[in-house]
Amino acid sequence: MLLNSYQYLLKNLKIAKFIKYNISLLTKMVYPIGKRIFFPIVKLLWLEKIVGLSNLPQEPFVFACNHASFIDDVIVPVMVCKSINKYIHIYCNDTFLKNPLTQIYLEWGKVIPIRVYKSKDQKKINEKAVNLALEYLKKNEPVGLFPEGHRSKDGKLQKAYNGVASLALKAKVTVVPIGTTGTYEIWPKGKKLPNFNKCTINIGKPIHLDQYYGKEKNKKVLKEVTSLIMKEIAKLSKQKYNF
């Protein structure tokens, strides 16, 4: 029985390694293909226009965007990535990495896994995410976050968390606010597949936070910086931030 158990474990371990290897191989293949095919398709199907590309700085930055739709996770980083010819490392719910299909896309995008639900290892996973984000920023690789944490149920701005403010102050980098309009109509929460409507991406001017550096542990400061960022996002997405 012990021998049978060992053989079963070994067999499954080989299968797991085979799957992991092929996903890794496919991920490497996807980028050159996607650069020529995926970007143009995304633009053709869903993008009406993108405004403010000249606001994207050369130095390291964190972008913060409203989150009205699942399509935000696709179209915003894809179009910004294409424009600056760099990966944008997005904070991503680690649940989506458990699905082999979404895992391929997310690993291709070099996302930063975070744990959005409460668990024993939530703190450890999210601390690792912050450290990874800081490493990317040191290498001049931008990081992207959706401050609201979750997709909006009605397309309107929700109360934001302090994660963007905290990361930007720790890394001492600027924050680029981004506001989208029309993404909720493309793929509202609860709908299985997207519509073929068009959206607009508005990129705002970088927000410099020098006066707040060294105060990333001050909750009052974090709330103030978060509010500052969200009000800019509200203007760009033609909404109001009332929190």
Tell me the number of helical segments per DSSP (H or I, 4 or more residues long): 8
State which percent range the strand residues make up. Answer: 5-15%
As a whole number of angstroms, the C-alpha radius of gyration is 19 Å
| H/E topology pattern | HHEEHEHEHEHEHEH
Helix content range of the residues, please?
40-55%
What separation lies between the terminal Cα atoms? Answer: 62 Å
With strands numbered from the N-terminus, the spatial order across the biggest sheet is 1-7-6-2-5-3-4
CATH homologous superfamily designation of the largest domain = Glycerol-3-phosphate (1)-acyltransferase
* CATH architectural type of the largest domain: 3-Layer(aba) Sandwich
Structural classification = alpha/beta
- Count of domain modules: 2
CATH topology of the largest domain, anyone?
A: Glycerol-3-phosphate (1)-acyltransferase
How would you sum up the major sheet? 7 strands, mixed
Shape: globular
